[in-house]
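Could someone model 4'-deoxy-4'-aminopyridoxal-5'-phosphate with this protein?
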Amino acid sequence: MSRFFTSRFSSLEPYVPGEQPKNRDYIKLNTNENPYPPSAKAVALAREAAQSLELYSDPDCALLREKLAELYGVSPDEVIAGNGSDEILNFAFTAFCDENTPAVFADITYGFYPVFAEINRVPYRQIPLKDDFTLNPSDYYGAGGTVFIANPNAPTSLSLTMADIENIIKNNPGNIVVIDEAYADFGEFSCIPLIKKYDNLIVTRTFSKSRSMAGARLGFGIASKELIADMNTVRFSTNPYNVNSMTLAAGAGALADEEYTRENIEKVKETREFTASELRKLGFEMPDSKTNFLFLRHSGISGVDFYKKMKENGILIRHFSSGRIADYNRVTIGTRAQMEEFIAVAGRLTEGL
Ligand code: PMP
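Reply:
Sure, complex below.
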């Protein structure tokens, strides 16, 4: 830290993204990326947009918002686009949390939430998940702050039901509930339709997972037009050109190719079920995933050893060393061939244990 760094952030611990190694060709199952390439339409439109990079991108993200609104049955003024859904989440922390309105979220969830709270200098309260990593909805009734719930949750891979979520929203009439649906396309439902019924709901979404566009950095939020306007106040006060023109074009291209997205989602889900069932035969335990990853442990090997040995074998997975989840690893679902390799190595590492 330099001597000039503001003392406000002297204890800020930044979010640590998963490794993006350049030195070796790993099977990369550590950052929940999609193993399939982005839509050819997305790539073609991004390339075309690159011809006009001398111009600023559209600060209204009008075309993309229009297409998203059409797809999700909302109106364009109920949609905001961002540089990844991380940015939308950060807008929500800035716009809807303060010293009297803490952020409230689970103890085991997306590791960025406490960082967003710190950088926005707002207090936060963490509510422990149950021992089996399920979330008890009533723990969030009358939360007294802005609630952030990743559904399905990361890294646990578990989903609440739509009724559970609706109960949490109903029981927080004076506060906002943010449902982070980064992985919802691999699950069974979306809360987006609930925004018509509840003015205290924000749903965040990403193109990083189901639409294979993690590198493009594109996310969006859906909520009442009043909440979207508040987040736009924050957006226009930080970076009105937050989504670059190649990414905006790529996003529109991906939305014109929804069948491709759906096919890839189905492939990932099928591979997930295959992988889970093979791993259970080897003695691994894991919750029933509704995402594009598995959260697993094996009683014969520690979480960190499994991670290290996988890495020695050319496979990168994600290990979180903290407390209750230190025995676990999070493993992204890759292609069938990648997962067959993962299963084979996992079998060798746990043989006889
Ligand atoms: N929410 C959750 C739960 C995530 O795991 C991620 C991916 N790291 C994000 C949000 C952010 O994704 P992105 O910024 O790529 O849209």
